[in-house]
Amino acid sequence: MLPHLEQQIDAAQSWVTQGVDAIVVTPIDERALKWLQIQAQKKGIKWLNYLGKMDQSDGYVSFNHSQSGQIVAKQAPSHVNNSFTAAIVARSLLAAERSS
């Protein structure tokens, strides 16, 4: 199990045990958190996701990535004094790098 996933599971499990009102999570691995989601919801804890939907979640918060990138690209030149080089990292590129 990935160290960050283990930390995410430990944190969510602690919040379920504490009986918080809601848990907002960006799941590293949805399958690994599903049992915690079910446990939380059985206790009346709202299960919300950030940056994407998870099956049977109580809701999610997200934003338009393309629009955000365009806004940043338009504003970036006003924050630098000299010429600069920028790179755009897209989700498809990251997925390709992981598979190699």
Describe it for me?
By secondary structure, the protein is α/β, with parallel strands linked by helices. It folds into 2 domains: 3-61, Response regulator (Rossmann fold); 65-99, no CATH class. The protein has helices spanning 3-18, 30-42, 65-75, 91-99, and strands at 22-25, 46-50, 59-61. Strand 1 (22-25), helix 2 (30-42) and strand 2 (46-50) form a beta-alpha-beta unit. Helix 1 (3-18) runs parallel beside helix 2 (30-42). The longest helix is centred in the N-terminal third of the chain and has 16 residues, at 3-18. The chain is elongated.
List unreliable stretches of 5+ residues.
Answer: 93-100
Approximately how much helix is present in the residues? 40-55%
Order of helices and strands: HEHEEHH
- Oligomer state equals single chain
Query: CATH-wise, what's the superfamily of the largest domain?
Result: Response regulator
Named CATH architecture of the largest domain: 3-Layer(aba) Sandwich
Q: Kindly state the number of beta strands.
A: 3
CATH domain topology of the largest domain: Rossmann fold
Strand order of the largest sheet: 1-2-3
Morphology: elongated
By DSSP (H or I, 4+ residues per run), the number of helices equals: 4
User: Mean pLDDT score, rounded?
Assistant: 80
The largest sheet, given as strand count, sense and whether it forms a barrel, is: 3 strands, parallel
* CATH class placement of the largest domain: Alpha Beta
What portion of residues belong to β-strands? 5-15%
Gyration radius, rounded: 18 Å
- Cα(first) to Cα(last) distance is 20 Å
Overall number of domains: 2
* Structural class computed from helices and strand pairing: alpha/beta
